[in-house]
Design a protein that fits this description.
Two copies of one chain form a homodimer. Chain A has 308 residues and is of the alpha+beta class. The first copy, chain A, has a single domain (6-306), classed as 4-Layer Sandwich (Glutamine Phosphoribosylpyrophosphate, subunit 1, domain 1), CATH 3.60.20. Chain A is built from nine helices and 14 strands. In chain A, strands 1, 2, 3, 4, 5, 6, 7, 13 and 14 form a nine-stranded mixed beta sheet that branches. Chain A is globular. The termini of chain A are far apart. Chains A and B meet through strand 3, strand 4, helix 4, strand 8 and helix 7 of A and strand 3, strand 4, helix 4, strand 8 and helix 7 of B. Strand 8 of chain A pairs antiparallel with strand 4 of chain B.
């Protein structure tokens, strides 16, 4: 028992412009980040596990329509919503991930059920939905996922026959959480609705263990948000872990090298949130902004959108 | 130009028992390994790229009905064939992967088309098949993928309601190749038909960049075969790469640590083939056997099934 607890969350990174942000909208984002932070932190405070805490925080973010995950998932090319999610436990390296599911209210809950109740790590598409039904997970109809702004984004993207990130400004819509519980166990989770007008069953980095999501008690827990293809090719989350384990870097050194140097060199815009086995938190991003928040029981509380 | 060329291939690892192997069957496996080796090696000899060489070798293995990939893919729970494949180029870290596709004759060709002709890295299911059609890839009907032995395996698995590996003996059915071309560029590719009676859209490690497949000119190119879930959780292929890059291990040291120590500790049965930037080849496995072969232009030629 370390009695130290810590949690960090993100709601995606990208070109978040102050010029298009109203004070009301900013207050709304901050309130929702606060709610998600509370949802996870309360579990840690009560002695709950880091896995439960990241699931609770991501669930809260999935339920908020302005983030591209769960209820707020963007429209794909055929007007549906295909969502991806992953969760990983650093204590035993157990993991669950789901890709390309529709109508599942909380994809993170499905990733958790796969981790806890299947012999597999990754389930895809309709097969994953069948498993979700057997696990009695909550399903929602199209109306639940409908959002006028998302619909307009899709119509614009359809007209121009282009895939687009989740906002008209370039934003990588993903939500995620990392946490350390009283036992010193760390965990990570990520969830996303992918890209507006996405075709061909495209899968990003979020559900890829080692790329968008990774947790290992020996090193760190990571949840990424960014240009998925480049994050997959760079195996970003496990890269941070290996730089700590094999090269002896600190969490900050490893995160800075990956986000500000390695990713920048290949045009890999985005960021990540990270926690190490000591409870240190890093939230680096090489884009304009990243919706993010963190808290520990040593006096740290932070809710931010822009660099500052 | 190094003028050094090298190629290694595998047809899966697992409990391959001498007691169930006839001399005729063994000769057939060896002949097919030789053919696949030739298909890739001829390209390297003619000055072709390592990416072309691994694609040619894997295509040859996919076309052979006794390996669980392409034509020989096992039956899933509903009597279909869901195949996964990946390819990665070590020169520029470009990658393409496909998961859960049916009726595509050569999934490796689809992975290659995704790498070369899409802005994405991973495409899944029917969306990936749509992309394959736009790319004019060859499709085959159910009859092409039908195999009496595979059908009986599926019927047995159905009766017992269990997922099973691709042979009645425990075998991880996957094929793969790694190569170095005259320019010193390395590449890796992996292809699989998954598990007999597989349900729920399960995805293994083969198409996961960093887990079953990885290539980086600075370190090594890797193709894995084994218990996919444990290989995903261990990010096996990128782990070997990081042990070389960050810890300074040789290819052999890194492969031995991962396959004989780290994987064994978690019950991760299987193996991998690896090539490093100097053209060194390793083919370690912690199971009874692994169908494997390799060749370079320094006199090495090897075709093996068992340890010996």
């Amino acid at each position: 028992m370390t009695n130290k607890i810590a949690l960090a969350i993100h709601g995606g990174a990208g070109t978040i412009l102050r010029s298009t942000m109203t004070p009301e909208l900013q207050a709304q984002y901050e309130m929702v980040l606060q709610q998600a932070l509370n949802a996870g932190y309360e579990i840690l405070e009560a002695g709950g596990s880091s896995v439960d805490a990241v699931e609770a925080a991501v669930t809260s973010l999935e339920d908020f329509p302005l983030f591209n995950a769960g209820k707020g998932a963007v429209f794909n090319n055929i007007g549906g919503h295909e969502m991806d999610a992953a969760i990983m436990s650093g204590k035993d390296l157990k993991a669950g991930a789901v890709c390309g599911v529709s109508h599942v209210k909380n994809p993170v809950a499905l990733a958790r059920a796969i981790m806890d109740h299947s012999e597999h790590v990754v389930l895809c598409g309709q097969g994953a939905e069948q498993f979700a039904k057997l696990q009695s997970l909550v399903f929602e109809d199209d109306a639940y996922f409908y959002n006028e702004q998302r619909y307009q984004q899709w119509q614009e993207a359809l007209k121009e026959d282009r895939v687009q990130l989740d906002h008209s400004d370039k934003k990588f819509g993903t939500v995620g959480a990392v946490a350390m519980d009283m036992n010193g166990d760390i965990a990570a989770s990520t969830s996303t609705g992918g890209m507006t007008n996405k075709k061909f069953g495209r899968m990003g980095d979020s559900p890829v263990i080692g790329a968008g999501t990774y947790a290992n008690n020996n090193t760190c827990a990571i949840s990424c948000t960014g240009h998925g293809e480049l994050f997959i090719r760079s195996v970003v989350a496990y890269d941070v872990s290996c730089l700590i384990e094999y090269k002896g870097l600190s969490l900050k050194q490893a995160c800075d090298l990956v986000v500000y140097d390695k990713l920048v060199k290949i045009g890999g815009e985005g960021g990540l949130i990270a926690i190490d086995k000591l409870g240190n938190i890093e939230m680096p991003f090489n884009s304009e902004g990243m919706y993010r928040a963190c808290r520990n029981n040593n006096g740290l509380t932070e809710i931010k959108i822009y660099k500052d």
